[in-house]
């Protein structure tokens, strides 16, 4: 009678493990579900890095936007930055590219950009209020906002050129029905 307990326990553990593996495989780890997908992008007013006139989300609406949160101390951000520079040069006519400095000093961020290049505007999120509003968990994180101001997606970690190009292209396509409906209901 006790012999069946060990195989049954093994079968239960194996089934649970297979379920976990099945649910995890085939998914892009950079596709992180988050509550803001399909929602209007949270408004912001930030100062440009190095000074200048405040930048407001409302001033940028009407064009798709690529919004990248980064920091000079972030190793993956150093890897990703040339991709964003390329994207801003190659796809800047299709989308506004904006960087947002996260949990960093202005001096460190300016030094990083002097070394790495700065072909698109950078904003200072001094108290991380914008990062909290957007649900940033760490850097780098890139948000894709359509011309109507709706967040279409989020990429966690350093983005590659192919993914960036595909995401910018998606921003010019009509929003999926569920995304458009969710934006109208808010």
From TrEMBL:
Lineage top rank: taxon: Bacteria
UniProt domain Thioredoxin: residue ranges: 35-173
InterPro entries per UniProt: AhpC/TSA, Thioredoxin-like_sf, Thioredoxin_CS, Thioredoxin_domain, Thioredoxin_ResA/DsbE_sf
UniProt-annotated location(s): Cell envelope
Record carries keyword Disulfide bond: yes
Keywords for the protein's UniProt record, in alphabetical order: Cytochrome c-type biogenesis, Disulfide bond, Redox-active center
Pfam families: AhpC-TSA (PF00578)
Annotated protein name in UniProt: Thiol:disulfide interchange protein
Protein's organism: Corallococcus praedator
């Amino acid at each position: 009678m006790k012999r069946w307990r060990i195989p049954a326990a093994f079968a239960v553990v194996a089934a649970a493990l297979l379920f976990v593996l099945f649910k995890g495989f085939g998914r892009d780890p950079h596709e992180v579900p988050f509550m803001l997908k399909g929602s209007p992008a949270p408004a912001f007013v930030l100062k440009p890095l190095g000074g200048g006139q405040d930048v407001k989300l409302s001033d940028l609406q009407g064009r798709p936007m690529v919004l990248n949160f980064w920091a000079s101390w972030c190793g993956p951000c150093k890897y990703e930055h040339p991709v964003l520079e390329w994207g801003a040069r190659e796809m800047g006519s299709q989308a506004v590219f904006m960087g947002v400095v996260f949990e960093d000093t202005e001096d460190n961020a300016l030094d990083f950009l002097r070394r790495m290049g700065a072909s698109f505007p950078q904003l200072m999120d001094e108290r991380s209020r914008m990062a909290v509003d957007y649900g940033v968990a760490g850097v780098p994180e890139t948000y894709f906002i359509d011309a109507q101001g709706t967040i279409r997606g989020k990429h966690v970690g350093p983005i590659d050129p192919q993914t960036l190009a595909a995401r910018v292209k998606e921003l010019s396509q009509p929003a999926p029905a569920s995304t458009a409906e969710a934006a109208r209901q808010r």
